[in-house]
Amino acid sequence: MLFGAPFLEQHLETVSLAILLTCLTTLPFLALDDPCVRRVNAVYFSPRQPHEWFLAFLGYGAVIGTWSSSALLILDWDRPWQAWPYPCVMGALLGAFFGILLYLTHTYTTNCRRKSALHDPSSSLSHTGNMGVKVCMD
């Protein structure tokens, strides 16, 4: 059983979660210029471009959110929000949201490092003292 899914019942709910996860993890790759399996693997395991980082953070956030929220399914509280697949759907959406926030943070800090390196030629991003981290107030 993956994510606590009932194997022989509640097919509609299971398919709904599968469609949501597909929309969050795989469907955005159709926006790429070359959406092939090799490219998907490259994006998830070694992203280089900003849009690749976005796709990786979005996909990882959705899957990690779904997987971590499935722990709520095994609790015996018998609450309506605990029924299959509500926790996994909310976990996927929250995970994708936090993935986007992580992407924005990553992009902001990367741009700040680049701007700092361009404006201060004496500093080096590989210097071990400050690790290239400077506050960007532009």
What does this structure look like?
The protein is an all-alpha fold and 138 residues long. It has one domain (11-119). It contains four helices and no strands. Helix 1 (11-25) runs parallel beside helix 4 (86-119) and helix 3 (50-69) runs antiparallel to helix 4. Residues 126-135 have low confidence and may be disordered.
pLDDT < 50 runs, ≥5 residues: 126-135
Determine the number of helices (DSSP H or I, runs of at least 4 residues): 4
**How many domains in all?**
1
Strand percentage, roughly? Answer: under 5%
Pathway: Glycolipid biosynthesis; glycosylphosphatidylinositol-anchor biosynthesis
Membrane topology: Multi-pass membrane protein
Organism: Opisthorchis felineus
Keywords: Endoplasmic reticulum, GPI-anchor biosynthesis, Membrane, Transmembrane, Transmembrane helix
Q: How are the SSEs ordered, and which strands pair?
A:
Elements: H1 11-25, H2 37-45, H3 50-69, H4 86-119
Helix pairs in contact: 1-4, 3-4
Quick summary of this structure?
The chain has one domain (11-119). It is 57% helix and 0% strand. The protein has helices spanning 11-25, 37-45, 50-69, 86-119.
